[in-house]
Amino acid sequence: MASAWTGEGTNSYFDNPVNWSSGVLPSSNGASAVFDRLASVEFRASGGASSLFIGQSTSFLLQGRTFSTSSTYINQKAFFTIDGGMASLGDVSLSGGITAKGAGTIVSAGSIQGEGSGVSILQFSNGAILSADSVSGVKSIQFLSGAVGDVGGLGLMQGQSLVVSGAGTSLGVSSLSNNGGQVSLSAGAQLNSTGYNAIGNLSVSGAGSQFIGEWLTDARSVSISDGGSLSVLGVDFSYGGQLTVSGPGSSLSSRHLTGSVDINISNGGSITAVETQNLGSLSISGGSSSYKSSSTTRIKDVFSLRDGASMSVQQLNLSGASSIQNAVLIANQIDNSGALEIRESSIAPRDKGGAFTNSGSLTGDFASEYQLNNFGHVSIEREDSMVFRRGGNYSIGYINVRGSMEFLEYFTNDGTIVLSGSLRANDLLTNQRTIEVSGTASIGGGDFYNNTSGSVAVLGQSRVNFLDDVVNDGTIAIALDSTAVFHGSYSGNGSITGTGTSVLLGDLRPGHSPGSQTFEGDVVFGDDFSYTVEIGGLTQGSEYDVIHVGGLLTLDGTLSISLLNGVSLKQGDTFEILTFGAIEGEFAAFQGLTFEGLSFETIWGANNLTLMVIPEPNAATLLLPGLAGVIAFGWRRRWKQS
Question: Helix %, strand %, coil % for the chain, to 5?
């Protein structure tokens, strides 16, 4: 059975199956071709109609021909299939489907508008090409297997989707508006947008799959995986959302990355963003996974960098729970106001210098190239260590050191340190507030200065080793049954209080040339100890040195006398240089007891040692047989009688 339409300017209506194997549809005069309730319409002729309506459950096949119409209406469950040839559809109202396939298939349209609640489908595959002014409201849009699309504006609503898939498949749009729908690129497909895009939900997966565009706004869920890439001017997650970049070669490159977004980078994925602001959470894990930004990255919630991943930023601001483990962090500045733990990781500034500012809590085991500015809490467990290699370190907060803390340059404490481990500053450690020692601890690496407002408390049954030179102008309090050991020189005008024991193994120089030093407890002079008494006048504590020991003084080492420039002494001048509660032992040696024809006699009292200027023994007398030994024995007796 064959039918032909020959009328012009009229409507033709067919309610039976029609097979047109030949024949021509008129192309002018406003005629309409209406296909309603037809099971199948197969059209191979050339020509066109000004309006095409394909009714419900009808199939219309255009194969290898040219077709033109000013408007097209495709009802529910109706399909217009184009296989080869060219179709110009005008404005399209779509409740059914349009499928185009095959190389050389070219479809052009004005606007394509999905209508009603039906399942509207727009599918192009196998090299078919679509050129349209706009597409919106379509339930499912698919570009597959080398299809090509060029669309002005493309819009999706809730429950609608755009799929671009397959090597050689590409879609270009001037703008993309996705309000609750899903955009998916896969298997090497490309999507290019030249304008702003309200992206909503986006998935880019597979090697070679690429989205290139301008701003992506109103992003909700963006997933890049298995080698896919997203390269845009900016991504804005104004309403929060998720961003996932996973798999080797998967990447996001964006000049701007903003909004309270939760980001997950894993298994070799990467993000490069020039400017970032106020992110929600950020997790970077797995070897080769990376995050790079040339500006400040602020993370308000959870931050995790681990398992060989890396991060490089200008500045990193953390305010939530954060963890860096077995990873690499490069940032010129780190500001932490949350809870941060760092372990087995390399952290360093991009450029020379760099500051690590902590106003939250900091724990872990790491070495860094930063200076520390601590306004919060730092805690180092027994098996852990922290190293800061840059100078200018400062703390007004709280530091608890059970393990090891080291500063390769100088460090100033203006807060509280609780120490039961090792504290080192290789240049200078200055204490302006409080250090509490419990258990066994050490302070050293460089000189230690306890200034006038500084306090060191060695709590009960504790021991602290001062490994280098100490200048004490404040207070060091040593509790009963506790010990402070000074391995280097000790000087300053401060006091050592408490009933514990001070062990001095290096030089003792009271005050600041000269001065007075008080020990309330016991004192032990070691065998390498040297007490250098500076004498520049007759006033104790200001013109010559004195040591006051409230408990037991155990003697050893060397007593040295040093006369300051310009001092003039005479016979009979006395200098009380030691007071003590009790005494044991003796000095092993002494230096500087003779000068300018005079000498110092040591006079031991029950609780003090005084030097008196006397004439120097005559050298000729000392040469008389046996007399020199007697006089020398007399000197030794004076020391032993102490």
Answer: 5, 60, 35
pLDDT digits (tens, 9 = 90+) for 17-72: 444 433 333 333 344 455 444 444 444 434 444 677 888 888 888 888 787 888 99
Per DSSP, the three-state class of 633 is helix
Q: Please, are residues 291 and 282 in contact by the beta-carbon 8 Å criterion?
A: yes
With residue 621 as reference, give the H or E element that holds it.
helix 619-623
| Residues contacting 123, CB < 8 A, separation 6+ | 97, 98, 99, 100, 140, 141, 142, 144
Name the residue among 26, 19, 27 with its Cα closest to residue 43: 19
Residue at 373: amino acid letter: N
CA-only gyration radius of the chain, Å: 45
List, for residues 548-561, the tens digit of each pLDDT value: 999 999 999 999 99
- List, in sequence order, every residue forming a beta bridge with 210; answer none if it has no partner: 190, 229
- pLDDT, the chain, mean: 88
Within 358-515, residue ranges assigned H as helices are none
Instruction: Dump pLDDT digits (tens) for 208-259.
Output: 999 999 999 988 999 999 999 999 999 999 888 999 999 999 999 999 998 8
**Of 510, 514, 507, nearest in space to 538 by CA:** 514
Query: In sequence order, which residues have a C-beta less than 8 Å from that of residue 82 and are 6 or more positions away?
Result: 62, 63, 67, 98, 99, 100, 101, 105, 107, 128
Q: Using CA atoms, how far apart are residues 625 and 456, in angstroms rounded to an integer?
A: 56
Question: How far apart are the C-alpha atoms of 99 and 41, rounded to whole Å?
Answer: 15
Report the C-alpha gap between 345 and 328 in whole angstroms: 6
Residue 420 falls in which region: left (phi positive, over 0), alpha (psi -120 to 50) or beta: alpha
Query: Which token pair is 247?
Result: 């798999």
Identify residue 206 by its one-letter amino acid code: G
What is the pTM (predicted TM-score) of this model?
0.84
Are 376 and 361 in contact by the 8 Å Cβ rule? The answer is yes
Which pair of tokens denotes residue 531?
């007490």
> Which tokens hold the place of 228?
């896919």
